[in-house]
């Protein structure tokens, strides 16, 4: 089964009366790719998905599926597979009939319906459950039935809107991987929406971060985490320290940055940026910081005082404050031999490539 199709969203803009919910969005989803739209509540994720599905109409722009502009088509003419949070299985139909429904609607011959439903039941590991009714299945199993129903008719595209939102955390994590594996197996182009950054990082080939109807960054999960382009992305995904500094010099590999306390540190850059003498933020993940008693132990270092150490299971979060009042949190493994004491001066160190620079704009 090959279901690859590519999707382009071109200058998409959507107003609800005067309110701009989707603001000039451009986005490419490659054939077979799993793309997640990630953003806070109200950022326009569902609106964008509805535009793709055809439940809302664009004010400007186009939705292009497989090189065809589908913007003017009715939802049923787009033939897209969908799985939303309040997916409703038909309670009076067996699992088999639930999954067969979209095929029968499309007048697929009986024999083929039988074959395709059986194949997809196998794919979602429910081959024993065809004759049961939805209420006889667990939440996770029902979810898999809903997924099977969404893809059984070989749609060119699968849309997911917070499909796991109603499940508890453990089941959600399990289902994230299952959906991901099924998606990979059939290679269906998928656009998923979530406000849960962990879910986005786990499932996606590519993540599109949205804020106020606009795209902030589109990137692989790893790049997004390691190289956030701006303050919004940096703060939305994971925990991060943003340390103020002034760029002293730049070459194509690193920038020398002077932080408030007078320390000069090297920060990795991807190219020779035009940022000399600019005030920037050093974005540094807590888990990339090491702690030492002596300054000389690190290439990059800042002096700080320990405010408190918080045990979080696998690690300690060490909250510190520099002499100029900046707070920096370091995450160190819980099995370290010696925990720094409160009110003690320590040195925080990190590798040049483990931090990046972002512009020091005030968040909206
Ligand atoms: P998200 O899915 O990211 O939470 P939505 O796309 O649902 O965001 O909503 C984006 C913004 O558009 C929100 O401010 C919401 O209140 C508004 N909105 C969504 N749907 C409608 C509608 N049908 N009419 C008016 N405003 C809407
Ligand atoms: Mg939504």
Automatic annotation (TrEMBL):
Similarity comment: family membership: Belongs to the ABC transporter superfamily. Spermidine/putrescine importer (TC 3.A.1.11.1) family.
One GO molecular-function entry: ATP binding
Keyword Translocase included in the entry's annotation: yes
Protein name according to UniProt: Spermidine/putrescine import ATP-binding protein PotA
Enzyme class: translocase
Function according to Swiss-Prot or TrEMBL: Part of the ABC transporter complex PotABCD involved in spermidine/putrescine import. Responsible for energy coupling to the transport system.
Record InterPro entries: AAA+_ATPase, ABC_SmlMolc_Importer, ABC_transporter-like_ATP-bd, ABC_transporter-like_CS, Mo/tungstate-bd_C_term_dom, P-loop_NTPase, PotA-like, Transp-assoc_OB_typ2
EC number annotated for this UniProt entry: 7.6.2.11
Alphabetical UniProt keywords: ATP-binding, Cell membrane, Membrane, Nucleotide-binding, Translocase, Transport
Self-association and partners: The complex is composed of two ATP-binding proteins (PotA), two transmembrane proteins (PotB and PotC) and a solute-binding protein (PotD).
GO cellular component: ATP-binding cassette (ABC) transporter complex
Catalytically driven reaction(s): ATP + H2O + polyamine-[polyamine-binding protein]Side 1 = ADP + phosphate + polyamineSide 2 + [polyamine-binding protein]Side 1
Pfam family for this entry, one: TOBE_2
Domain ABC transporter: 7-237
């Amino acid at each position: 089964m090959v279901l690859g199709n590519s999707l382009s969203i071109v200058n998409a803009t959507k107003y609800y009366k005067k309110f701009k919910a989707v603001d000039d969005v451009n986005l490419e989803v490659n054939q077979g790719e799993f793309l997640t739209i990630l953003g806070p509540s109200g950022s326009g994720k569902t609106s964008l998905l509805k535009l793709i599905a055809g439940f809302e109409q664009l004010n400007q722009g186009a939705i292009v599926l497989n090189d065809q502009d589908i913007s003017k088509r009715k939802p049923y003419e787009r033939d897209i597979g969908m799985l939303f949070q309040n997916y409703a299985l038909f309670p009076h139909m067996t699992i088999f009939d639930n999954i067969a429904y979209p095929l029968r609607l499309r007048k697929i011959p009986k024999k083929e319906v039988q074959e395709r439903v059986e194949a997809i039941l196998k794919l979602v590991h429910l081959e024993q459950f065809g004759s049961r009714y939805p209420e006889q299945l667990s939440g996770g199993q029902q979810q898999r039935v809903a997924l099977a129903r969404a893809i059984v008719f070989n749609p060119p595209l699968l849309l997911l809107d917070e499909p796991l939102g109603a499940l508890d955390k453990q089941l959600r994590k399990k289902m994230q991987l299952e959906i991901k594996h099924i998606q990979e197996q059939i290679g269906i182009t998928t656009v998923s929406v979530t406000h849960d950054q962990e879910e986005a990082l786990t499932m996606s080939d590519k993540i599109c971060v949205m804020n106020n109807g606009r795209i902030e960054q589109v990137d692989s999960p790893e790049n997004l985490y390691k190289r956030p382009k701006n303050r919004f992305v940096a703060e939305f995904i994971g925990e991060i320290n943003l340390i103020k500094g002034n760029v002293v010099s730049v070459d194509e590999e690193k920038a020398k940055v002077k932080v408030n306390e007078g320390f000069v540190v090297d920060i990795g850059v991807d190219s020779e940026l035009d940022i000399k003498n600019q005030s920037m933020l050093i974005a540094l993940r807590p888990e990339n910081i090491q702690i030492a008693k002596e300054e000389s132990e690190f290439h990059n270092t800042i002096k700080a005082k320990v405010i408190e150490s918080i045990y979080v299971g696998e690690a300690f979060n060490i909250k510190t404050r520099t002499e100029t009042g900046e707070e920096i949190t370091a995450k160190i493994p819980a099995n370290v031999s010696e925990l720094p004491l409160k009110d003690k001066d320590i040195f925080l160190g990190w590798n040049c490539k483990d931090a990046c620079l972002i512009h020091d704009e005030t968040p909206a």
